[in-house]
# Entry
Amino acid sequence: MDENPKRQQGRQRRLDALTASKIVDAAITILDSEGEEALTARTLAQALATGPGAIYHHLKSKQAILAAAAAELVTRAISRKPRNSDPGADIRALMLTLFDTIDEHPWVGAQLTDQPGQPALLELFESIGEHLDALRIARPSRFMAASALVNYVLGVASQYAAAARHARQVGRTDVLADIADDWRGGQRSSTHPFAYSTAHELAEHDERQQFITGVEFLLVGITVTAQPS
Amino acid sequence: MDENPKRQQGRQRRLDALTASKIVDAAITILDSEGEEALTARTLAQALATGPGAIYHHLKSKQAILAAAAAELVTRAISRKPRNSDPGADIRALMLTLFDTIDEHPWVGAQLTDQPGQPALLELFESIGEHLDALRIARPSRFMAASALVNYVLGVASQYAAAARHARQVGRTDVLADIADDWRGGQRSSTHPFAYSTAHELAEHDERQQFITGVEFLLVGITVTAQPS
DNA sequence: AACTTGGTTGGAATGGCGTTCCAAAGTCGA
DNA sequence: TCGACTTTGGAACGCCATTCCAACCAAGTT
# Structure
């Protein structure tokens, strides 16, 4: 399937040789510019000026391509670590970096939530966990705390991916504004009073701010519940 | 497309008439017993002893069927409200009921995260929001708090759906044990020390306990940050 | 320089999916 | 009984991921 180390020195490859990483790069380009639905074996083959068969020689499935693409972007995001002296600031910065990656590449959100035990999730969990170590969370709580933060990120990620899909299908409209209108329509003021009265916030709020507020709730809860000292 | 109120009194229907709700019920049965992948227009038509065309006369797409099925189960779960005197206990009970629904019907998790502005999500948001009202969270924070809780549930839901898919494909029931093994393999002890050292918890923990611990982190964070008094 | 070998290529074929089409059948007001 | 309208369900369409396989190459061997 490729990645044979011997080949690096032994056989000489053609200059235009297909490789797993070239395929993944082309996939990322398509996903970013034309969305999840635009990535098919045929469009990807066309972008690489080859046929579908050649691609499957290097990567065993479309899911493998997507997993590799997501892992690439997550790893890239995580490796930009600020490493301040303040571990609290560090973990907030990490979470915001993740948010920005998902905001810029919504398909990553869909991919992260599509398969369990994915490489990208390991990176995510590891990075969050190491920051919690720095925060000196009591040992037994670290796993729970890291899981909670990962799950929260995944929830936000899945909504971003869904919104991006919807926006592309329906056209350029503001997805959240449509939902807010729906929540204010019909008999909603009596059947769903809470949603009705908060719908305007859905349409107007800053999503980055909303995300970090949720992170803040979790971090406060974690430190209050599990700080040793 | 059906659901014409006039028809209820006017035209008389055949006893075995196809209806949207019969289709959704059949879909739920297939999803629960044979998994997401088993639900196709053809298998559903077969279960209803008809052809695919008849189904599309009542519901406009497969996504609409899935959305209706998910909304049905979420509504059913949410309507089992305990309504104790203690609002803190109520919201924990609600979250656990949601967890149990997703645990029993993992495909609901996939559906919730697949489309924005879904009916099931409105029910979820409304129910969580009303409980927060009872908790007397300060007004401006309620939207943020409800969103954070919903996002957390969605993250957990997506992981449950992914694990169920994987388990059905591989035939193995213990997906988490496989992932834990992966996290302990290779050079992980040096490259991913946190994941390596917590892998055993991944395989051994009680998932329901883990879920409610995350909820607890959020609720503590929310009350500490946003309680008015 | 020809021959062999085995990884690589890419176009064609396969099987299955969601969805649409449409002729036949059913139902009702007149 | 008739004509209009809904409902049915099997066949057909277009697209997808994936597999097949004959041709293609760049070494090693002679």
